[in-house]
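PROTEIN–LIGAND DATA SHEET

This sheet pairs a single protein chain with one bound small molecule, zinc ion, given as SMILES. Inputs appear in the order they were entered. The predicted three-dimensional arrangement of chain and ligand is reported afterwards as a token string under its own label.
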Amino acid sequence: MSDPVRSVATVDRWRHLRRWIAAGAAIAALVGAVMGTWSAAQAPEGDRSAGALGNRPGASREPDRPLPDIRQYRPESTLVVAQHPVPRARYPVIDIHSHQPAPISDEQMRTVVASMDRLNLRILVNASGTSGERLTRSVAALREGPFPDRMVMFANVDFRGVGPGFGARAARQLEADVEAGAVGLGEISKGFGLMTRKADGTRLTLDDPELDPIWATAARLGIPVLIHTADPPEFFEPIDFANERFLELALYPNRRFPAGEFPAFETLMAERDRLFRRHPQTRFVAAHFGWHASDLGRLGRLLDELPNLYVETGAILAELGRQPRAAHAFFVKYQDRIVFGKDSFQPDEYPYFWRTFETADEYFDYYRDYHAFWKLYGMDLPDGVLRKLYYGNALTLMPRLPRAAFP
Ligand SMILES: [Zn+2]
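PREDICTION REPORTED AS:
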């Protein structure tokens, strides 16, 4: 079948053709290299990934329509995954950080308790603490009202105008307030440290020794001190597009603590930690995870160092829900040191907490766009940890609370 003469001629022609193809490819490669160098020189920084020969697809394009602002862009998620909303907590809950009228009327109490029952909130701690005659009236309103076992009062101290003798006087008052029925001290507000002034006009530091008798009295009486220090670190940073709380800071001028006008975040943290260290017998509850919820390693080191420190969960849910695995590990490791608190009493917001703590749900909505522009993931906490978080640790901190309703 084969024709040897014709075969040789065909091979010769192929050799020729291959030579031409090779030459063509070399020219094309040269042109390509020159063009590539040229386009790389024209392309803005970041349009090429390291080691790539060409630009990223679509780099340097401009949109052909106006872009939404950060509050308008609300894409509907196309993710289809199991959904387990939790309208009611799995176990009865003590909220150690609530703000309620003091005194509260029977009418107001009925409204609040109806919401509490739906959510499985068993006891609210009214951390809008007060003292003296008003505290006595507030405690009486609860004890004589329709739900005597559903809300308790904290005492508080007005830290304005501290001078010689202030600490001893405030400590005596605190003792009288606990005698009158207060079960803790707080919420000591962020004003303490940030702006409260002494009688001499200087800023009252958190670790001012004049206040030592107050903390010592809290230890002797066995009551916890709920203290809110500073605010999220972003509130102390420049308000630019790199700031994660940009929208919130744009909405709330009173949440800005610019350097120069206010002590720095770290100054306040250092004063706070010295206060905690100096009173190892006093049990402090750092509200809002001490504003370290976005740095759980740091908070863990603080809890390791200070056995008298507890932390409370108010207003930091978005931080936990964006790191569900790290948060799970943290809640397991420090399961005896974390108490549930919500702060602002908005009943429809509690189920977001229950869902984040109790489920393994993925990528679900948070309730405040200015706290977080991201979605939440469930932490899937074990039962034993949930019980301590919801009521066990609060009962340890406040042994005078009614215990009957807890499993
Ligand atoms: Zn509060």
